[in-house]
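Summary of Year 1 activities. Much of the first year was spent building the evaluation harness for sequence design. The harness presents a backbone, in tokenized form, and records the residue chosen at every position. We chose the following record to illustrate the format because it has been used consistently in internal testing since the harness was completed.
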């Protein structure tokens, strides 16, 4: 980082690239409600363990490139994509036998994504910070960077948790949000196998949560790569030995609750529209003197609260059932296996190619017209007569 040529590189041209491997059906920890009559409660989850790799790249200004998703398989399949593909129009997709990147994919990512999408308006050098994976250290990869005036900075082995901005503040919230979305899907689809379609839906939402400008800039600052601060990684709790007891990360400050829409009554008191029985009871306590409530009125309020709770439970159960049935119906709908043919001039597939090839596959008609000669047959002529001696 002390190289004079690298010092002149603008923060927008300083980029970090890394791959994150995500299992389709693995989710995080959480609280489970179970019957008190049982000693333990089993939580079902999907058995899908297919690996999908997401390649992300960020710069020091808090901006990110479109991701590259590497599926495990031989070809990218059309049925892996959800019906609504508009959110993924800038994404890139490919497949490998292991679900991980390789030399060919890494070089294609450099040629088709990084170089054209980060090309500056005026000729100036760029900096690419990445780990020492074998696909990043091939002769072709480094020659291509040299030809395009791209400086390569390889992080030392086993130091990504200290020096890699993506690992410090981006991948963790993305994976946490992905597991949260996956847990919701598990409830809705009744632990059915997680599909590539579900992965795309969950990862898209998780990316909106974790890949924010604030998180990206925090990762660069924590790594000491921008603003350049050598003391930052050296003072990391992962580097320093704890003096007294184990290191405990400081808890984030609690966010004050956001005030809802309030309305005043004739006496200037605030009244909120009750959304549950607990809010009804609070309104009663705040605006009605307990001594003025006679037993019939108290019974009436109790019945109102009970009826409100019962209706809320019914609505919640019915909404969950409807969503679950819609999800199961979508997943059980037969889908034709069709390979998504990539552009011969491109290594990666895009949703634009998916839309272009959609009209090539037409549905089988429900009714097939019979030839004219078959209409002339009668039922007796189609029967055989057998005589047993």
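For this record, the design step produced the sequence shown next.
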């Amino acid at each position: 980082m002390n190289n004079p040529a690298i010092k002149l590189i603008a923060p927008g041209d300083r980029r970090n690239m890394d791959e994150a491997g995500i299992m389709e059906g693995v989710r995080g920890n959480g609280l489970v409600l179970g019957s008190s009559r049982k000693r333990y409660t089993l939580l079902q989850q999907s058995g899908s363990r297919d690996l999908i790799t997401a390649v992300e790249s960020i710069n020091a200004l808090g901006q990110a490139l479109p991701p590259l998703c590497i599926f495990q398989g031989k070809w990218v399949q059309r049925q892996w994509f959800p019906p609504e593909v508009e959110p993924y129009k800038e994404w890139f997709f490919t497949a490998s036998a292991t679900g991980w990147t390789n030399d060919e994919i890494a070089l294609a990512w450099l040629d088709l994504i990084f170089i054209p999408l980060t090309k500056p308006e005026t000729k100036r050098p760029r900096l690419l910070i990445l780990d020492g994976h074998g696909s990043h250290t091939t002769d072709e990869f480094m020659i291509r960077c040299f030809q395009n005036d791209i400086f390569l900075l390889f992080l030392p082995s086993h130091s990504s948790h200290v020096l890699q901005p993506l690992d410090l503040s981006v991948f963790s919230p993305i994976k946490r949000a992905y597991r949260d979305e996956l847990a919701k899907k598990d409830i809705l689809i009744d632990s059915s196998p997680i599909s590539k379609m579900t992965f795309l839906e969950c990862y898209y939402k998780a990316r909106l949560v974790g890949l924010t400008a604030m998180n990206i800039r925090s990762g660069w600052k924590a790594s000491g790569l921008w603003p350049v601060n050598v003391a930052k990684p050296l003072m990391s709790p992962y580097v320093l030995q704890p003096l007294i007891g184990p290191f405990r990360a400081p808890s984030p400050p609690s966010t004050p609750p956001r005030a809802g829409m309030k309305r005043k009554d004739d006496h200037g008191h605030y009244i909120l529209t009750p959304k549950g029985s607990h809010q009804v009871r609070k309104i009663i306590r705040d605006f009605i003197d307990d001594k003025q409530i006679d037993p019939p009125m108290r019974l009436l309020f109790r019945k109102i609260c009970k009826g409100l709770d019962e209706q809320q439970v019914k609505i919640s159960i019915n909404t969950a059932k409807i969503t679950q049935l819609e999800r199961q119906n979508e997943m059980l709908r037969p889908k034709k296996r069709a390979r998504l043919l990539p552009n011969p001039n491109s290594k990666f597939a895009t949703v634009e190619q998916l839309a272009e090839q959609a009209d090539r596959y037409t549905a089988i008609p429900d009714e097939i017209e019979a030839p004219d000669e078959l209409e002339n047959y009668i039922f007796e002529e189609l029967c055989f007569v057998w005589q047993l001696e």
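The first strand starts at residue 14 and ends at 23. Quantitative recovery figures across the full test set are reported in Table 2.
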